[in-house]
Amino acid sequence: EPEVTQTPSHQVTQMGQEVILHCVPISNHLYFYWYRQILGQKVEFLVSFYNNEISEKSEIFDDQFSVERPDGSNFTLKIRSTKLEDSAMYFCASSERGTGMNTEAFFGQGTRLTVV
Amino acid sequence: AQSVTQLGSHVSVSEGALVLLRCNYSSSVPPYLFWYVQYPNQGLQLLLKYTSAATLVKGINGFEAEFKKSETSFHLTKPSAHMSDAAEYFCAVSTQGGSEKLVFGKGTKLTVNP
Q: Which of B100, B103, B106, B109 to mutate to test the interface with A (most CBs of A within 10 A)?
């Protein structure tokens, strides 16, 4: 069964450092997403990506964050100058069509980011 | 703007008992509704989704949910709990033809006691 793959599963970084979280979406999917879940809080939408550009982003997704699809298979989230409050589980997801079109999103297992 | 409220952050049931996990939504336009499950150390897996075709939706692992527009609810049920159902359950909403994002509830952690 096809799945969304995220690496690494855990990442520890020092405050102020840059991190890149990696995701391989399901191959025939066209929409890609990043969500995050701070411990004990809701899963929050960060950004959606379609046709090689950001289609929607939340207030959380400020200039500190960027996404890229560097090749035909990978989808990355870059966090510049990490802060303690960036510590969270980051989920990548993909879907054939947008979730606003009656399509489920498939989620990866997440990357737990700890900023120290 | 859409929102989701899940009543009860923790629910505990005995094996074989009815499981009822509550979800209420707020949406100004017809919603799409989803239940996801997260087992320990795993990602989010879709249990079922409401897409306006039928108000009673059956999902995997014996779960089902009923969409009640008058109550703005989409509660998740299972007639008989199994130990393997222990997990965290998330209700989520998106809007038809609207935003691409899913808005999640806070989640309900289900414990199944032997």
A: B100
